[in-house]
Specification:
Elements: H1 2-31, H2 35-41, H3 47-72, H4 78-98, H5 118-139, H6 146-170
Length: about 180
């Protein structure tokens, strides 16, 4: 009887692990179609796709930095950069209106995972800004309207500033940034 129970337990664990792997794969696929990561996997873009990827990536950064500050306290560079992300979103909205494209809903919270600590959060910030800069550089090689190019250039410059801020913060307090107070 114990042997049958143990087999059922083993099968239950195997099935649970397979379901977890499947769900994890679905999450990874969803992330590949959102923001800068979605843009990275596309070969060509319409104006609508570029604007959607751009605002999704700005939503994602804002949500991530908000989550980090809620968990680890309000500190720079997150407190400064989150304000810039709000500004970036506001720069994009008129382009959606002008080109008659619906502004996508902000569902970025579905794609954000809380980092283990501030050091990891800062490194994620570095990586996210690098991806964001690459996305805008890619968009700027396309034949796009001048007003869209102007906004993308502005957003790229902002991301370059954010990248410097994250890198500088990683060099402070053993990689824990300006506001580190210990665990």
């Amino acid at each position: 009887m114990q042997e049958i129970f143990d087999r059922k337990k083993i099968w239950f664990l195997i099935i649970t692990m397979l379901i977890s792997l499947l769900i994890g794969s679905i999450v990874v696929l969803a992330e590949d179609n959102y923001g800068a990561m979605g843009a990275k996997h596309a070969e060509d873009y319409t104006l609508e796709e570029m604007l959607i990827y751009a605002i999704q990536d700005e939503y994602l950064a804002r949500t991530e930095y908000d989550l980090i500050m809620n968990q680890y306290g309000v500190q720079r560079p997150f407190s400064n950069i989150i304000k810039a992300e709000e500004h970036h979103i506001e720069l994009l909205k008129p382009l959606f209106e002008k080109y008659n494209i619906s502004i996508p809903e902000d569902n970025s919270s579905e794609y954000v995972v809380l980092p283990e600590d501030i050091r990891e959060a800062l490194q994620i910030g570095v990586n996210a800004e690098i991806d964001n800069i690459e996305m805008y550089e890619s968009f700027l090689t396309k034949d796009i309207p001048a007003d869209v190019a102007f906004v993308f250039e502005e957003l790229k410059r902002g991301s370059e500033n954010h990248l410097r801020a994250f890198k500088n913060s990683l060099n402070r307090n053993d990689g824990f940034g300006q506001g580190y107070k210990g665990k």
